[in-house]
Amino acid sequence: MKKYFWVAKNTWEETLTYRFNFLMWRIRTVVLLLSVYFLWHSVIPEGSRLFGYTQNMMLTYILLTSITNAFVISTRTHEIGDEINSGDLSNFLIKPINYFLYWFWKDIGDKAMNIVFSIAELTILFFILRPPVFIQTDFTFLSLFCISIFLAIVLYFFVNILLGMIGFWSPEVWAPRFIFSIILGFFAGNYFPLDILPNTVFKIFEALPFSYLIYFPIKIYLGQIGLPEILNGFLLMVLWIGIFFIFVQVVWRKGLKAYTAQGR
């Protein structure tokens, strides 16, 4: 386990090496957050309600997407496809290291850095904007929120591993990831709570795994869903994790058969 801890630590140090790239990424994140924040601040005036949300609930939801993204969506697995295409995957196949655990801990290092900056950014925004936010004090909901975040991290990790394995069959791995990230922001509830959509559309979104990455954990924090719905959501998350885990194993075995170590 110690070797994986060093993987996470080295990832942190790698991020600090490319400071400008990371800084531009964080600026982009803040600008996007502020754009969505001020949009909803204008759409829902203080003291009014829209789509079942008061202003403080909606703004809390939007601000929480920042910290939830830092925990769940931040990842380094986008490098897997390039690693396969360059032949660097061979370095791991001959070493006594679990390839998936290696990338999981690499993700942990990346998430730690993003979480630190996300908290710092939100702290600054709170002092500047003084937003009317909802603070959850119920320990039960806070505990369930933490569990949902952990499950979301594992679920998103397997989804990203699958995207990275495109590299076994195609040198073009950036475009599918870019398209996926755009679609994910919408389906995960990154810009608005999914339950403001028409009920039929919402039910479809709710059946997909992506709504459990952002929307579901934040709704738990807000205390807007009951315990039976939360437990049902956990069961669906575990089910999706199991499905993606099996899919990853199957694709990994087929991918290794197609792997040619090109470039090595």
Explain the overall architecture:
With 264 residues, the chain is mainly alpha-helical. It has one domain (2-258). It has 11 helices and 2 strands. A two-stranded antiparallel ribbon has the order 1-2.
Instruction: Note poorly predicted spans.
Output: none
Strand count, sense and closure of the main sheet? 2 strands, antiparallel
Let me know the average pLDDT: 85
What proportion strand?
under 5%
Shape: globular
How do the strands line up in the largest sheet? Answer: 1-2
Number of domains in the coordinates?
1
The N- and C-terminal alpha carbons lie at a distance of: 29 Å
Number of helices: 11
Radius of gyration: 20 Å
Which structural class is indicated by helix and strand composition?
Answer: mainly alpha
SSE order, one letter for each helix or strand: HHEEHHHHHHHHH
Question: How many DSSP E strands?
Answer: 2
State the share of residues found in helices, binned by percent: over 70%
Short description:
72% of the residues lie in helices and 2% in strands. With 264 residues, it is mainly alpha-helical.
